[in-house]
Amino acid sequence: MLKHCLAAMTALFLMTAQASADPASAGALLQQMQSAAQNRNYELSMVKIRQGRIESLRYSHALIDGKQVALMSHLDGQNAEYLQRQDEFTFFENTHSPYTLKNARFPGIWSALQRVALDKVVDSYDMVMAGRSRVAGSVAQVVRLVPRDGDKYGFVLWIDEQNHLLLRADMVDREGALVEQTLGVSLVFSKSPSAELVKLSTSKQPPALSVDEVYKAPQQALSWNITWLPDGFTLRSSDRHQLISTDVPVDYMMASDGLVDFSVYVTKADQQQSVRNQLVVQGGTTLVSFVNDVGVEITVVGEIPVETAKKIAESVQPLARNEAVQ
C-alpha cells in the first residue's frame, strides 16, 4: 500500500513539475486573465500593501453597449479616482485638474497586467506555473514572472481558477522577498452594469488628448541620452517640454519593457537647492535624484530597484561634450 502511495505521489510531483516548466500553459492563463478582465461585469475590493502601509482600493468594471467602462477608486487618504471608457482614461487627483489621455492605463502593476502585450512579457520574463493556492475564498492558479536579469523586479500572480480574474499580484526582489502586494479581498459579479458605471459611461469628461497633444510641437532635440538600459527595456519616448505648472524646461525620456516603465528627467539645477542627492522608495516605486558636477539635476522614477535606478541615472550622458540643458 505504501509503495502505491509513494508511486502516486511521485507521479503527481512529476506532473506538477512538468506543468510548472511549461511557459505555454502560463501564457494561455495570462491570455484568459486579460480576456476575463475586459469582458465581465464585476467589482473587486483590494488592498495594496507596501512598507507596512495598507491602502484600500475598489475596482469596478462593466461592458456597456459593447464598450469597456471601469473605475478605480482609492478609499484612503486623499481622494484619487481613475475612469476608463474604452481607450480613454481620465485621471482625477487632488494635485491637479482632471485630464483624459488616449491609450493610457491606470497606475500600478495590477492594472498594467490587464493590458500589457504578452509578447513583450515573454521577451523580458520567464513565465512559470507555480501551483495552486486560495485568495479571497477562491482557488487560484499561481504564475511567476521571473526576470531574466537581476536589474528588475519579478512578479507572482494569483489567477482565479474558475473565472480567470487576477486576484493577487506580488512584486518581489531578486531574493524573492516581497516588495509590494496588491491583494483582492472581495469579488462580486453582476449580470448588468452598476448604476454608477452606467452614469459615468455618458458623463462629460475633459477632452481626450494624445501624448503629442499634451506636449505640443515644436519640440527641441535633446542634449542627453541614456547609455545603459536594463535588459528588455527600450526607449519609448523623449522630448523637451516645460514641467506642468512651472516654467522649468526639462529633457524627458521614458523607457519600458512592456510591463514596467521608468522616466528620466534632466534639468538645470536650482542653485538655491541645498539637497543634492535624494532617494525615495515607496514599495516598488523608486525615485533617485542627484545634481552632477556640471550643475545638472538628473531624476529617475519608476517601478525598478534602487540600484537599477542609480545605474540608469549615472548612465545619462551629454550627446556632445559640454552640452547641457539650456
What does this structure look like?
- By secondary structure, this protein is an alpha+beta fold.
- Helices cover 22% and strands 45% of the residues.
- It has 7 helices and 20 strands.
- The strands form 3 sheets. Strands 7-8-9-10-11-1-2-3-4-5-6-12 form a 12-stranded mixed β-sheet, sandwiched between helices. The protein has a 6-stranded antiparallel β-sheet with strand order 14-15-16-19-18-17, with helices on one face. The chain has a two-stranded antiparallel ribbon with strand order 13-20.
Please outline the helices and strands:
Elements: H1 2-20, H2 23-39, E1 42-50, E2 53-64, E3 67-74, E4 80-85, E5 88-93, E6 96-102, H3 109-115, H4 118-124, E7 125-135, E8 138-147, E9 154-160, E10 166-172, E11 178-189, H5 195-201, E12 208-209, H6 211-214, E13 224-226, E14 234-242, E15 249-256, E16 261-268, E17 277-282, E18 285-291, E19 296-302, H7 306-315, E20 316-318
Parallel strand pairs: 6-12
Antiparallel strand pairs: 1-2, 1-11, 2-3, 3-4, 4-5, 5-6, 7-8, 8-9, 9-10, 10-11, 13-20, 14-15, 15-16, 16-19, 17-18, 18-19
Query: On the 0-100 scale, what is the average pLDDT?
Result: 85
Low-confidence stretches: 1-21, 321-326
What percentage of the residues does DSSP assign to strands (E)? over 45%
Main pleated sheet: 12 strands, mixed
N-to-C CA distance: 81 Å
User: How many DSSP E strands?
Assistant: 20
